[in-house]
Amino acid sequence: MQARPTKRRFSFDAGYYDRFYGKRRPRQEDREEMALLGDFVCAYLRYLGQPVRSVLDIGCGLGLWREVIARQFPQARYQGVELSSYLCRTYGWTQGSVVDFRARSPFDLVICNDTLQYLSSTQAAAAIDNLARLSRAALLFGVLTREDWEENCDRARTDGDVYLRSGAWYRRRLGRHFTNLGGGLFLRRDAPAVIWELEKLR
Q1: Which CATH number applies to 52-199?
Q2: Which of 113, 122, 147, 149 could form a disulfide with 142 if both were Cys (CB 3.0 to 4.6 A apart)?
Q3: Above 80 in pLDDT, residue 90?
């Protein structure tokens, strides 16, 4: 059974970002955490020999990944996509949904973090298929699962009015398109990189 949102219908307005992201500006600890994750992800992609010339950050929020990409891959084209009309007005993101956003060509790296828990199971499954279409090679994916809500997250800083599903639910659907490399990093199954057996999570 998945928890169903009951309090609101996901209004991603200024009040939402004030509450969960610190008065609409990224907290310093969030920046530092993102920088560490970014260093890991970008180093691993270099290790795999995977070029990163284009990046799609879908559900980009305040755009913390833009800073990481500018530092790690300064020649890469970054595109932020957001459902929130408020954030699109504030930061100039492209407005769109992870469920059905389309692009002229796929991206070397697609980032989708803390987005799919706001979607029903039908929508979330469609979004994963769409992420596979949008990704030429790599996907960085994160989502709040039921176990994370119960055991891992800081509930004072985490929106719990979401659809909580198991990690297995996501792994099954992502596994149709991607190989799980750990750390939230996935690689398309048809990408040319060589991945050693013990580098894969099963």
Answers
A1: 3.40.50.150
A2: 113
A3: yes
In a 3-state reduction of DSSP, which class is residue 149?
Answer: helix
Cα distances (Å, whole numbers) of residue 4 to 7, 121, 123: 10, 10, 14
Tokens linked to 156: 């004072």
The structure tokens listed for 48 are: 């795999």
How many residues does this entry show for the chain? 202
Widest Cα–Cα separation across the chain? 46
CA distances from 135 to 127, 131, 153, 194 (A): 12, 6, 28, 18
Side chain identity, residue 106: P
Closest alpha carbon to 3 in 121, 152, 156: 121
Kind plus residue range of the DSSP H or E element containing 111: strand 107-113
Tell me the whole-structure pTM to 2 decimals.
0.88
pLDDT in tens, 60-75: 998 999 999 999 999 9
